Fold:
Amino acid sequence: MTTPRTGGLGRASAILAAGTMVSRVTGLIRTIVLVQVIGAVGFASDAFSVANQLPNDVFSLISVGVLTAVIVPQIVQAAAHKDGGNAFISKLFTLGTVVLLLATALALLAAPWLVSLVAGDAPAEQQSLAIAFAYWCLPQILFYGLYALIGETLNARRIFGPFTWAPIANNVISIAGFAVILVLFGGSLTELSDWTPDRIAILGGLSTLGIAAQAAVLLLFWSKTGLKLRPDFRWRGVGLGNIGRLAGWTLLMAVASLAAGFYQHRIAMEASGEHPSVMVMMNAWLIFMLPYSVIVHSIGTPYFTQLSEHAAAGRDDDVRADISRSIRTLGFFLMGALATVLAAAVPASRIFTGSPEEAEAAALVLVGYLAGLLSLAVLFIVQRTFYAYGDTRTPFFFTIFQCALIVATAYGAIVLYQNDVIPLSSLAATIALGQSVAGTVQTIVATWLLHRRLGGIHTAEWMFAILRFTLAAVPATAAGWGVFLLLGGTQGWTTANIFTGAAGCIIIAPVVLGVYVGALALLRAPELEVASGVIRRFLPGR
Structure:
């Protein structure tokens, strides 16, 4: 029988999944329009991608690890204060805003240096364009930070919906703005010489405006928290020092992850111009993140809040149960999504590229990332369990291990190219596969460490479930690939243009999912009942 708390998690998951789905779909449309503006393969598109990714990278260095690892558990605990956490959260927001403003200012001053870290070996004209875009894009650091601070506070207070729905504002503004650029300038601007200062300002400014709107939307829901924010610079005596100690490890972890990502992109820039490089990798990652975000964040985020509460209360048995249930539920949905995207990799990639040939090369990058999808989901739960216990030190060490593997595999990719083992067109795909290998090894190590800490986390139970999902996914993927071949394969109509690529995905998806569910029914998978309960929550009236 469903408990009230489980029901609450189910409703929260449904809200998060719906919001994430709409957000990701509009994000895909945003990227489609952006590709029409600047292309997918070329010097100009990679220059913009490098610049527009910098705010995400710098923001992750400043805030993401700290927020995820530290802030949510601390806000949950602050709710027990006499004032309901008002003083603590006001001080936290004041400090966070100051840090974000300083970080944004420093990033703007360091823009040329930041670009050179990623594109230092690129042609001078391409680097100059990337630096010009960076000056317009780096202010996003402030707005990303405010969005995360407000959103994580809403999540910690069990107000789950707005955090996932707010990015739609960013996507709508960007879609409209990019469409205006196409109309104003008469079509695609794919050459470096096409980008004059006014055009750079419009594209970069629109990108930042969208992120600012995304943060502003969340403020409309702040009253639901019952908290009253006010500037408070008296930062002593409310536990912010403890946050600093906990955040130290996550900050170091973010530095390592940032360095590894910079190195990957620097290697990938070797292929910029005529082959898949940074822009294609980011678009492939966007497709990869669609199932991950919809499924993992919608199910995992409410579990993390509940898991934090159980850990704070010392209820280890409940934590173990949370881990097992969440991984099994995530695994069921993710393996079906993985099979679907694998089967439709080429037509899906055609949506974000300019030709069938580009789509084939981009599909290899997507497949490289997909190899690590399931392990990334398991890591999401395992890593956040450590965070729920206030342990940021252990995740630091297994993340450092992963970063070392990422650097090693990226270096291995360029060595393979230099020794004519792989062509330059496969460099980005090899880097993506290396990241998946590194993430899988990291997840194995992290799971073992958590098993030791808690004296078991029902590993055999959820591993056996994953095996069932894998057995069902194999014939499902084969069936979907067979449909793709029947539609003409790489030379068929599904790769003719963006719209036929989307149509191909729509045709392939139900075949894959039907075979997947049918196979699990034959295997009598108990997760089918749980999954049907989750799906029913999306039906009208539920």
Q: What stands out?
A: The chain has one domain: 4-536.
